[in-house]
Recover the amino acids of this structure.
C-alpha cells in the first residue's frame, strides 16, 4: 500500500522546535509533519523526540496541533483504503478496562447488520486485558494478517480483527515506546494522536469511542474522562471522520469473567443470545452508535432492533464463525464455547460476612488476573489463556457468609492461595441493596 501523504516533508531544526514547545509556543502543521517524518527517517534522535514529548506534556497542544500530529503519525506509514469494501466502515475503540471483552461480540454483531468493521486491536498490558490475547484463546486464530488478506476478510465476511502491522502508523509505535519510559503517557493530546492515528489508518468512515471512567480505567474521574472524550471527538472530526464517544463506568469489572478464554467465552454467550446484562447492554449501546454512523439505522430504536434481531436469528454468531474460519481459527469453539481452554482447578473465594454486593474493585481484580498469568507487565511477556477469575455475584446480589464471591481458575490450587484474601477484599458488602445503574454515563458528539 502506498503512503497517503503526497507532500514532501519540510526540513526542520528539531532543537528549535523543542525549544519553542518548551516555551509554550505553537507549531505549524508543516513543522509537526517535519518533526514526525524526521523522527521516522532518523534525522530526529530519540533523545530529541523525548525532550519534545516532555515539553508537549508540560505545555499542552492546541486542537490544530493535535490534528496535525495525528495526521503526521497516520501518514508515517501505510493508510488502508479498503476500496473493495463497499459498506460504510466503522470501528470502535475502548480506552481499556477489566473484563472488557466487548469488541469480540460487537464487531460480528455490527457486521451482521450491514456495517463493515475493520478492527485493529491491541494486547493487554498491566491490569487491562487485550482483545488480541482473548482472540488467541481460540486455537489457530491468526491476528497477523497481511493487509491484502485483511481487506479480503472484511469484504467477504464484514469484519476482521487483527493486530497493528509494522507498516501502519509506525511513528506512533516508536513514540509510544518513548512515552512509556519517559513519563509522558499522561498527555491528552498525545493520547488522542496515538489512538486516532492507528484507527484512521484502517481506512474507516467513522469511529465510536468507549472512554472508560473509574477505578479500573486510565481516567479515574468523570471530568478527566470527559476531557479526553471531547478531545478525541474534536480531533477525529477535524480529521474528517464521524465520531461519537460514550463515557462508561469502569468501577467494577464488565460482566462476570476476567481472563482471556473466560472473556472470549462470555462474548460468545452474547452472540448465542445470552450473557450477563451489563455485557449485553454495553454491546448494544455501542453497536447502536456504530449502525447510526454506518447509516443502516436512522434512530437508536431502529439500530437496537436490528442488533437484537441479528442475535436472535443467529446471523451475528454465523458472522463470527466465518471470521474465525477466515483467520485460521477452530470454528468448533464458536458453537461450543466450552471447548475453549479452562484451568482444571477452581478455588472458591467465600464471603466473610452476609450482605449485598455494593462494589467490586476492578483494579484489584485486574491486578490479580495479571498475577495469575492472564495479563502481562511487559509487552514481551506471554499470557496464559486458561487462567482467570469468574464472578458468580454481581453488583446488587445478596450473599450469605461463606457463599462464593468469586472463583479463581488455576492449574494448581496452590497458585490461588496468595490471592484469595485479595479477591475477597475487592468485594464491599452492605446491609442495604444498592440501586442498579447503567454503565453509560454520558454520550458526546462534540
Amino acid at each position: 500500500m502506498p503512503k497517503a501523504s503526497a507532500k514532501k516533508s519540510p526540513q526542520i531544526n528539531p532543537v528549535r522546535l523543542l525549544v519553542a514547545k518548551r516555551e509554550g509556543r505553537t507549531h505549524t502543521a508543516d513543522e509537526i509533519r517535519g518533526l514526525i517524518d524526521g523522527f521516522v527517517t532518523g534525522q530526529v534522535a530519540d533523545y530529541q523526540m523525548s525532550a519534545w514529548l516532555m515539553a508537549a506534556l508540560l505545555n499542552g497542544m492546541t486542537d490544530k496541533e493535535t490534528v496535525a500530529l495525528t495526521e503526521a503519525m497516520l501518514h508515517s506509514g501505510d493508510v488502508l483504503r479498503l476500496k473493495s469494501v463497499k459498506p460504510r466502515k466503522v470501528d470502535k475503540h475502548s480506552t481499556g478496562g477489566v473484563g472488557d471483552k466487548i469488541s469480540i461480540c460487537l464487531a460480528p454483531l455490527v457486521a451482521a447488520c450491514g456495517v463493515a468493521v475493520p478492527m485493529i486491536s491491541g494486547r493487554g498490558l498491566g491490569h487491562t486485558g487485550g482483545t488480541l490475547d482473548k482472540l488467541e484463546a481460540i486455537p489457530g486464530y491468526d491476528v497477523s494478517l497481511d493487509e491484502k488478506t485483511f481487506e479480503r476478510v472484511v469484504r467477504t465476511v464484514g469484519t476482521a480483527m487483527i493486530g497493528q502491522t509494522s507498516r501502519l502508523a509506525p511513528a506512533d509505535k516508536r513514540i509510544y515506546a518513548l512515552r512509556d519510559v519517559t513519563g509522558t503517557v499522561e498527555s491528552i493530546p498525545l493520547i488522542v494522536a496515538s489512538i486516532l492515528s492507528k484507527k484512521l489508518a484502517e481506512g474507516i468512515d467513522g469511529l465510536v469511542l468507549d472512554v472508560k471512567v473509574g477505578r479500573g480505567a486510565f481516567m479515574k474521574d468523570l471530568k478527566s474522562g470527559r476531557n479526553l472524550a471531547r478531545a478525541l471527538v474534536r480531533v477525529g472530526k477535524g480529521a474528517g471522520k464521524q465520531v461519537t464517544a460514550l463515557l462508561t463506568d469502569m468501577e467494577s469489572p464488565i460482566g462476570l469473567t476476567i481472563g482471556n478464554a473466560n472473556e472470549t467465552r462470555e462474548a460468545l454467550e452474547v452472540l448465542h443470545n445470552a450473557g450477563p446484562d451489563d455485557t449485553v447492554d454495553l454491546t448494544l449501546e455501542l453497536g447502536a452508535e456504530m449502525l447510526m454512523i454506518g447509516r443502516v439505522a436512522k434512530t437508536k430504536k431502529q439500530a437496537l432492533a436490528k442488533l437484537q434481531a441479528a442475535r436472535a436469528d443467529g446471523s451475528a454468531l454465523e458472522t463470527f464463525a466465518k471470521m474465525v474460519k477466515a483467520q485460521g481459527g477452530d470454528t468448533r469453539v464458536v458453537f461450543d464455547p466450552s471447548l475453549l481452554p479452562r484451568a482444571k482447578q477452581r478455588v472458591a473465594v467465600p464471603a466473610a460476612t452476609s450482605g449485598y454486593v455494593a462494589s467490586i474493585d476492578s483494579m484489584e481484580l485486574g491486578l490479580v488476573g495479571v498475577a495469575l498469568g492472564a495479563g502481562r507487565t511487559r509487552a514481551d511477556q506471554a499470557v496464559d489463556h486458561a487462567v482467570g477469575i469468574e464472578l458468580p455475584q454481581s453488583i446488587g446480589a445478596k450473599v450469605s457468609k461463606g457463599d462464593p464471591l468469586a472463583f479463581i481458575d488455576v492449574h494448581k490450587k496452590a497458585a490461588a492461595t496468595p490471592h484469595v484474601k485479595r479477591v475477597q477484599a475487592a468485594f464491599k458488602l452492605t446491609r442495604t441493596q444498592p440501586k442498579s445503574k447503567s454503565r453509560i454515563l454520558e454520550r458526546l458528539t462534540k
About this structure: The mean pLDDT is 94.
